[in-house]
Design a protein that fits this description.
The chain has about 290 residues and is α/β, with parallel strands linked by helices. The chain contains 5 helices and 21 strands.
Length: about 290
């Protein structure tokens, strides 16, 4: 019983202390919304602070590049290079806000990882304070294996010759070109992906809250199987055939068929189209 009384007394003292902070700041003319900022060590008058990181890493062909846990947009450009250029920008309301999170970069010739993690902060800072916004910009070799996961922002990817995996993104996703397997899981936003070929594992979408557009390269055939869709499968291609089944299930083919495109749990439409070839783009430019 004595130990229980001690615990009760400690809890009552803590509640009284918090209540005292509330009363003192209310009397001083501060609003309740300002109290968490004071507890976390921030000042309402402080300006935003910025932190930039620029690094370069050599990568071998087929290296795995992973971007994970980013609180902001991710932009990935590609080129015929052997070096990865990494630029990370972090913006917070105060120096204390920047300390709440950190970006960890790990590299080797066969892999590059850029990951956001919880930083050093006190209890009230973690409870009430806001973390920084992060923007990650990469310039990568085309021959990489790309994985992006846990991104709270848009993800834009250039031409990748290897497989692409996108998981847990809160924002739109655009992939200029995927040269192999492409997989999209748990995306809250529209998706646009261009494919110049499909490998044996094909293309898959799972748990997408948004519209999906797949642009296939000239001459590529595909078979689409969709289950649990709250939307339609659309296309204006002359070599497109659609057979609709019951309960939000679809089967469609492009050309003579071929590798599979699977979709499950899609809250939006799926559109299949052709990507413009270099010659087609040139002719269109001349016409204009």
């Amino acid at each position: 019983m004595t130990m229980k009384r001690i615990i009760i007394v400690v809890l009552l003292v803590g509640i009284a202390a918090v209540a005292g902070i509330v009363r003192s700041y209310s009397k001083a003319g501060h609003s309740i919304s300002e109290i968490p900022r004071v507890m976390s060590g921030e000042s309402a008058s402080q300006n935003e602070v910025r932190e930039e990181t620029r690094k370069n890493y050599d990568l071998s062909p087929g290296a795995k590049v992973e971007v994970a846990g980013i609180n902001g947009a991710v932009k990935i450009e590609t080129a015929d290079v052997k070096t990865a250029d990494v630029y990370v920008e972090r913006i917070g309301k105060s120096p204390e806000a920047l300390k709440r999170r950190k970006i960890v970069i790990e590299s080797s010739p066969s892999s590059l990882t850029i990951r956001g993690k919880t930083g050093q902060a006190g209890f009230f800072a973690r409870l009430f304070g806001s973390g920084p916004t992060e923007r990650v910009t990469l310039r990568l070799p085309r021959q990489v294996n790309l994985v992006a996961s846990g991104v709270n922002g848009a993800v834009t990817v250039g031409e990748i010759d290897g497989p692409v995996e996108i998981d847990g993104v809160n924002g739109k996703v655009e992939v200029a070109q995927a040269g192999g397997k492409a997989e999209f899981n748990g995306v809250n936003g529209n998706i646009l992906v261009l494919l110049n070929r499909l490998d044996e594992n094909g293309l898959s979408f799972n748990g997408v809250n948004g519209n999906i557009e797949v642009r296939l390269g000239q001459g590529i055939g595909a078979e689409l199987e969709a289950q649990g869709m709250n939307g339609d499968v659309l296309s204006d291609l002359p070599d497109f055939a659609l057979e609709k089944a019951k309960h939000g299930s679809y089967h469609a083919s492009v050309g003579t068929g071929g590798k599979s495109i699977s979709a499950n749990g899609i809250n939006g439409n799926i559109r299949l189209s052709r990507s413009l070839s270099a010659s087609t783009t040139s002719e269109a430019a001349k016409t204009k």
